[in-house]
Structure formats: structure tokens, C-alpha cells
């Protein structure tokens, strides 16, 4: 976890940027000034804007060095997917606590020419020999999470690179091997450690204190890297060179793949991954899950992503008057919280990998079901945690026992042809398992399965472990259109299980409350799940108003949001980055 000292630094840092960029609040002007490359001072990355307007293209991501890489690809005539490849390569270096080539991702892609919306699934898979009880001890009790997360059993077959390769073959403009140059140069020459990364390096997560992490993050003088120190990673550069030349096969076959297998088989709690598991990985693609919300159409990936839960929450909110309210209204936040709780209850119970379990997606999003479920949203908060509903086609599962810690990032891009990417990408926990090969961290994605695979009566959990299965996710990269099919916005966030609430907040703030993108993303987060209501500090009037409505807010007990969004305003784009993190939005 990030230290209090670094948290205060980041809070002050975010406030400074918000103040220094307030003059960019031009969202309602008909002919806004356009950001150009000459106006971007890349040597002062700490002061790049949290909000930018641009006429032709836009990119927003969690680190300015990654945004620069994507921006340069777009300026060179690359597509949104080309830029996503370059950004992911850099993020894996400068933000390894969140994502990397050893992890997985979901992407929603909009083709401006065909108006087709495609969902790409690069979620990690369990090894073929994985078993439902792999996270149980000899007494059939769940292994403590802190023990499981750094184990070999935690790592799934990585899918992010293969997914990006699939999408780039279909939608790329530039040669694949040209998309890694920025990341390779930074890895070889070094980059300045950011305050957020420094906070993770010097924090208390067990993954930062593994043998591999110590070797990487501790200098010769015995001190850990601090903000501003220059960190080099030649091994990562070599891995990227191999990927640039060979594609995803560079890490799914051959020497790097063998290193992954060897590392996973080390104790404690060695995993069962084989070379055949890696070589057999295949990303998936298909039509996005698109549903109407008021005057818009919202598109996300389908299960096992978090798209189903987000879509249900929106469907529930469509039965309230939240669009007639605003961010200063406690009743609006009550409606938001109750819809969240109901959607989480269903999502936690029903959603798993549809290749292995029946997920009643159409039943959960059925108009009649949503109408009845929304009747539970009243004038005050429900006293008890809501139970799951009984949608049409629903099977019987046991209550889920999945922990979903943070360690994720989000990217949004619109290129000069109007194609759009929204991608959430992750290694799961902070620095994944803390195990490294080839200069990158291995994911701990299999801890996203339910540690308890079944109830005492043998009823299975939808998200129980199984060989070749993909674990459930809350990631829900979103692209929004108007009823005529025209692009409106792209957005998403990291945040573990809280992603659903973060994305929901941004959608409501942008579409219903018509807020500028920076203001929408900066709103306090309210995560209502079960009987708890975690939140950032709200103004006293709202907090008291919510308390009067039966909602007692607790300090945030979850990973903070890292929202990024791009919204179309007439003939220009407005891009924004969450003030809680180090991201920026830049366009031309």
C-alpha cells in the first residue's frame, strides 16, 4: 500500500495540477483551441493537463510517458490499436504495479468506417491441470490470500500481448515491430520513477519484497528506489525486442515461456503451468455487449468481464430519476448506491466464464427483470444486504468467495479516423505475484477465482477454478454511442471490484449530469456493495443527507479509481484523467 507520506504528496500534486489546468475548462465553446505538439512540454511530464481538448485525436492513460508513446504513434499515422500497443509496452515498464506483458486485458474497439463494435478478451486462463481445490489447504480451508498471491499457483497464462496482436492485425496501420521503440528506449536508457511507483516500491505489499522485486527495486547501496531516481530495465527491453520481432509467440513459446514455467513451478505452492498451456493460449473476440441507457447505447465486453454488472446497474438506474438530479443531491447518490448494491449482488452470484458455466446475461438485462428489481430502490437504503435475484434462465450457484484486490490500469484512445479503443489491463495485484522473468512481473490472476469452489451441499460457485477457465473480472472498458450510432465517449477505470462503481459514476456524471470530463472523473467515489458504503470524502451536506436516507459512509477501503475518458463535444474531443493518479490526456 502507498504510504501516508506519499498519499499526501499525491493529493497535493493532484490539487496543483487541477489548479494549474483550470484555464482549460473550455468544453462548452463552439471552436475550442486545439492542442498541438508544440504546446506539449514533454520535458515537464508532471504538469501535463488532466483535461485536454483536441480536434482530431486523443489519448489518455495512467502515466505521461505512456501517453507520449501513444501520442507519437497517432501523430505518425497509427491507429488507435497501434497506439494501445505502444502504451501498454511503456506502462509495463513505468507502471509495473498495475499492468504488463505478463498480464491480461479486455478491450472494446469501435471501427468508425464499419460502425462495428468488437470486444476483445485477453483474460488469462488457468493451466489445464488447475483444480477447483487448488487454493484450499489440507483441511479444505481457503489458503490465506497473502500466501496465495505470491505463489506459483496464482499465475494464469498471460493474454494481453496475444490480444493486442490479434486486434492490431485487424485494425493496425503501422508495422507491429515499430510500436515498441519508445518502451525499448526507456527501458535501456532509464526513466524517472514516479511518486506513485515509488510509493508502491516502498509500501507494505508482500509482492514488493519478493526475491525478484528486491533484486529489481533495491539499489547497490541497499536503498530502495525513490521518486525521481532513474531506473533501467535492460531485460525488459530484450523481451520487447523479441515481441517486436516474433509477436506474442515470443512469450508464449521458446526461452521466455520456459522461464515463465520454471518460475511458476518454484515454491512455495508451485503452480502447474506447462509449455503447452502457454503455446495453446488464444485470445477471443466477438460482438460487444451493447444495451440502451436513456438516450445512449453503452457497449462493454460480455462475461467474464464486468460488463454484465455495469450494464445491469445502468438498467436499474434507468428506472430512477437520477438523470433529473445532480451531483449535489443526496437522493441521486442514494439511487446510485442502491442500484450498485443490487447489481453487485447479481454479478457476484451469477457471473463466471461462459465457456464453463451458464451466465444468464439476457435474463439479468431483461426489461421485465430490471423493472421488478428496481422496485427495491426506495426512498431509503435497504437495511440488509440485497440478495441475488432470480432472472430467467438462472442456474443455482453457491455464494461466491472471491477476493479482488487492485492492481490495474485503463487506456482510452481515439485516432484521427475516429476509431476508438477503451482497454483495461492488469497484472491483478500490486506487482502481480512479485515474481519476474524477462524484466516483467507475472500476474496473480488466478486468485480472481473463488477460493471456495462449492458449498457444503456441493453446489458449485460460478467462479470456481477449472482448467483452461478464465476468472471473473470487474474490468469493463466502455464505449458509448448516441441512438444514431455516433461515437459519444470512451471510458474506464482500474480499481479491483470497485471498477463497476467507478465506471458507473463516470457514465452518470457525463451522460446524466452533463459534467465536464475532468469534473465528472474527480467526483467522490461511492462504492456500495453488500452492507458497506465506502466513499471518498463528500461535502458535509451530502454526507448528512445520505445518513438521513440510511447510508452511513465509511472511509474508502479499496483501490482508488484511475478513470480515463474521452467524450465528443460537437466537433472536438474532450479528454480527461483522474486526479487521483498520475495520468494525463493529450490530443491534437
Automatic annotation (TrEMBL):
Any single Pfam family the record assigns to this protein: G_glu_transpept
SUPFAM superfamilies with a match to the protein in the record: N-terminal nucleophile aminohydrolases (Ntn hydrolases)
Signal peptide as annotated in the record: 1-27
GO molecular function terms noted in the UniProt entry: glutathione hydrolase activity; leukotriene C4 gamma-glutamyl transferase activity
Processing after translation: Cleaved by autocatalysis into a large and a small subunit.
Active-site feature positions: 408 (nucleophile)
Swiss-Prot/TrEMBL keywords: Acyltransferase, Glutathione biosynthesis, Hydrolase, Signal, Transferase, Zymogen
Known EC number: 2.3.2.2, 3.4.19.13
Highest rank taxon of the organism: Bacteria
Catalyzed reactions: an N-terminal (5-L-glutamyl)-[peptide] + an alpha-amino acid = 5-L-glutamyl amino acid + an N-terminal L-alpha-aminoacyl-[peptide]; an S-substituted glutathione + H2O = an S-substituted L-cysteinylglycine + L-glutamate; glutathione + H2O = L-cysteinylglycine + L-glutamate
BP terms from Gene Ontology: glutathione biosynthetic process; glutathione catabolic process
Annotated L-glutamate binding sites: 123, 448, 473-474, 496
Family note: Belongs to the gamma-glutamyltransferase family.
Name used for this protein in its record: Glutathione hydrolase proenzyme
Organism expressing this protein natively: Zymomonas mobilis
Amino acid at each position: 500500500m502507498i504510504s501516508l507520506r506519499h498519499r499526501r504528496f499525491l493529493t497535493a500534486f493532484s490539487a496543483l495540477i487541477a489548479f494549474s489546468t483550470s484555464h482549460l475548462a473550455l468544453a462548452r465553446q463552439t471552436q475550442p483551441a486545439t492542442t498541438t505538439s508544440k504546446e506539449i512540454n514533454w520535458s515537464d511530464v508532471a504538469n501535463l493537463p488532466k483535461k485536454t481538448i483536441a480536434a482530431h485525436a486523443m489519448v489518455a492513460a495512467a502515466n505521461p510517458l505512456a501517453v507520449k508513446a501513444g501520442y507519437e504513434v497517432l501523430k505518425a499515422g497509427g491507429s488507435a490499436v497501434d497506439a494501445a500497443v505502444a502504451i501498454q509496452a511503456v506502462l509495463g515498464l513505468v507502471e509495473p504495479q498495475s499492468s504488463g506483458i505478463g498480464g491480461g486485458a479486455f478491450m472494446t474497439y469501435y471501427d468508425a468506417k464499419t460502425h462495428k463494435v468488437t470486444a476483445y478478451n485477453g483474460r488469462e486462463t488457468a493451466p489445464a491441470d488447475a483444480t477447483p481445490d487448488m487454493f484450499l489447504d489440507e483441511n479444505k480451508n481457503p489458503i490465506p490470500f497473502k500466501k496465495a498471491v505470491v505463489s506459483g499457483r496464482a499465475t494464469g497464462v498471460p493474454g494481453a500481448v496475444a490480444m493486442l496482436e490479434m486486434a492490431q492485425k485487424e485494425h493496425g496501420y503501422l508495422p507491429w515491430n515499430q510500436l515498441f521503440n519508445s518502451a525499448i528506449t526507456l527501458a535501456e536508457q532509464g526513466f524517472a520513477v514516479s511518486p506513485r511507483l515509488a510509493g508502491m516500491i516502498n509500501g507494505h505489499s508482500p509482492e514488493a519484497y519478493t526475491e525478484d522485486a528486491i533484486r529489481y527495486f533495491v539499489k547497490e547501496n541497499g536503498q530502495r528506489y525513490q521518486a525521481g531516481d532513474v531506473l533501467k530495465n535492460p531485460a525488459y527491453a530484450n523481451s520487447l525486442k523479441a515481441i517486436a520481432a516474433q509477436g506474442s509467440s515470443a512469450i508464449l513459446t521458446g526461452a521466455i515461456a520456459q522461464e515463465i514455467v520454471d518460475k511458476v513451478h518454484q515454491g512455495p505452492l508451485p503452480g502447474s503451468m506447462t509449455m503447452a498451456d502457454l503455446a495453446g493460449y488464444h485470445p477471443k473476440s466477438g460482438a460487444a455487449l451493447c444495451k440502451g441507457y436513456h438516450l445512449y447505447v453503452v457497449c462493454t465486453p460480455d462475461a467474464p468481464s464486468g460488463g454484465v454488472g455495469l450494464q445491469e446497474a445502468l438498467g436499474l438506474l434507468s428506472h430512477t430519476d437520477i438523470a433529473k438530479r445532480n451531483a449535489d443531491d443526496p437522493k441521486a447518490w442514494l439511487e446510485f448506491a442502491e442500484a450498485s448494491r443490487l447489481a453487485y449482488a447479481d454479478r457476484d452470484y451469477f457471473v463466471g466464464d461462459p465457456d464453463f458455466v451458464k451466465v444468464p446475461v439476457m435474463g439479468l438485462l431483461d426489461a421485465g427483470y430490471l423493472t421488478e428489481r428496481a422496485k427495491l430502490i426506495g426512498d431509503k437504503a435497504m437495511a440488509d444486504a440485497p440478495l441475488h435475484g432470480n432472472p430467467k434462465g438462472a442456474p443455482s450457484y453457491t455464494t461466491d468467495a472471491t477476493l479482488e484486490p487492485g492492481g490495474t490500469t485503463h487506456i482510452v484512445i481515439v485516432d484521427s479516423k475516429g476509431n476508438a479503443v477503451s482497454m483495461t489491463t492488469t497484472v491483478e495485484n500490486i506487482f502481480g505475484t512479485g515474481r519476474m522473468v524477462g524484466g516483467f512481473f507475472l500476474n496473480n490472476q488466478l486468485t480472481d477465482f473463488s477460493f471456495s469452489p462449492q458449498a457444503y451441499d456441493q453446489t458449485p460457485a460460478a467462479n470456481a477454478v477449472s482448467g483452461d477457465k478464465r476468472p471473473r473480472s470487474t474490468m469493463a472498458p466502455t464505449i458509448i454511442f448516441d441512438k444514431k450510432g455516433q461515437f459519444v465517449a470512451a471510458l474506464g477505470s482500474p480499481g479491483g471490484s470497485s471498477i463497476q462503481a467507478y465506471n458507473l459514476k463516470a457514465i452518470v456524471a457525463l451522460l446524466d449530469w452533463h459534467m465536464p470530463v475532468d469534473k465528472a472523473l474527480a467526483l467522490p467515489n461511492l462504492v456500495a456493495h453488500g452492507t458497506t458504503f465506502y466513499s471518498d470524502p463528500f461535502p458535509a451536506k451530502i454526507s448528512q443527507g445520505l445518513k438521513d436516507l440510511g447510508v452511513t459512509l465509511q472511509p474508502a477501503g479499496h483501490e482508488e479509481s484511475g478513470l480515463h475518458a474521452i467524450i465528443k463535444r460537437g466537433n472536438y474531443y474532450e479528454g480527461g484523467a483522474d486526479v487521483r493518479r498520475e495520468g494525463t490526456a493529450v490530443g491534437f
